[in-house]
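Q: A reviewer asked whether we had any structural model of the full assembly, not just the individual parts. We don't, so I'm hoping you can provide one. Inputs are below.
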Amino acid sequence: MKVTLWGTRGSLPTPGSRTTRYGGNTSCVEVRTSPRSTIVLDAGTGIRDLGAALDRDLERVDILLTHLHMDHIIGLGFFEPLFRPGLEVHLWGPASAISDLRGRLSRYLSPPLFPVGLRDIPSRLTLHDLPIGTFEVPGAEVTSDLVCHPGPTLGLRLTDGRRSLAYMPDHEPALGVPDFPSAARWTSGYALAADVDLLVHDAQYFDDEYPRHVGWGHSAVSHAVAFAELARARMLVAFHHDPGHDDEALDRAYSDIPADRVVPARERETFDLLAV
Amino acid sequence: MHAHSVSLSRAFYLVGCDLERRTRWRYGSRVASDEAGAREQFPVELILLRQVASSLAMPIFIVDISGNLLFYNEPAEQMLGHRYDETGEMPLEEWSTMFLPTDAAGSPLPADDLPLVKAIRDRLPAHGGFWITGMDGRRRQLSVTALPLIGMADRHLGSMAIFWEAEG
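A: Here is a predicted structure for the entire assembly that you could use as a starting point for your response.
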């Protein structure tokens, strides 16, 4: 299982010379388990470069959306493989209590916000309401569950039978827990992250910023570290950097954290989970 | 693009002590070691409900789909006569006996007549009343309103009760 980060930024694309090393594209992660198909987690602006890099002989793409906040879907219409006739594309995302994925996503992928509607996309596109539970996509077993973030938001756990990844780009498990973390069973996202080899987790705020953003659905760096510790994740990738954090600020924030266990997400970095 | 190999050789939580010193929050490595290997977790709707209940001044009591007690808050402790830290989670048969809800004549109420249980069974709000002896030893008449908890994807998660001391 190879995991590549194509977009690491939270909330808003942040291009420019001050974000070249950690990246300015919003959430997008590729999980590669087979040569003929690939799995894409979220469709932030990072998905555009991923699309351009995918082989022409690819047969199937599964895109799993954790939720439908704009920074996680804004790149969808710019994912070139969607416009390859014949390519099998499966788009998975959460329904709400009153609307399915198609209805929710069409609010963005339709005029006036976007010129091309879902029904006009030429690839063989199938939409799925992402179930809460376990299901299969080519090369991986996926488990999804609701996590603490405003609106229907899912965390994901993927395994190829040998290695495992948990992906929670937007997650505030410390909300309402004054002495975080409390008992594991009462911690949002715990079951998804327990004992994974790689945890990609929200770390949007520096610790001194979090008190001004309680309830916004994101974690402080120290919350992400504590959550990874609770779940016994072998490695934490601190993800969804705040748009206000440039490369120098992120360097400073992570300078004294052991890099073999906690790394700040860097765009285009690949983690080979089989390379022990 | 550069590759980064995941280090699998060391237990991640060993780093916790170092990180505790440089952050403003105190972390509980106790939890991680106590529950090593466990994968169980409550649905996030119940986790958030517990957090809300912990922040409210009115008594709240939460049970799962089988009627098992999951949580009650501090105001509820005062009325029920037992601290949650002492009782923890309990099966329906145990808590319905322990808290001894009775009718006006002092006869124990069957579990099936409790609003919490009705709310689970019927998936509808239920209201009722009973008498109970509180932590202070005083016998109180309580009014109870119980609500079924229906989560996303129509998951039936249990029910919650809000209760208060009845007038007179």
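A: Points you may want to mention in the reply: Chain B has seven helices and six strands. Strands of chain B lie at 3-5, 60-64, 69-72, 126-133, 139-150, 156-165.
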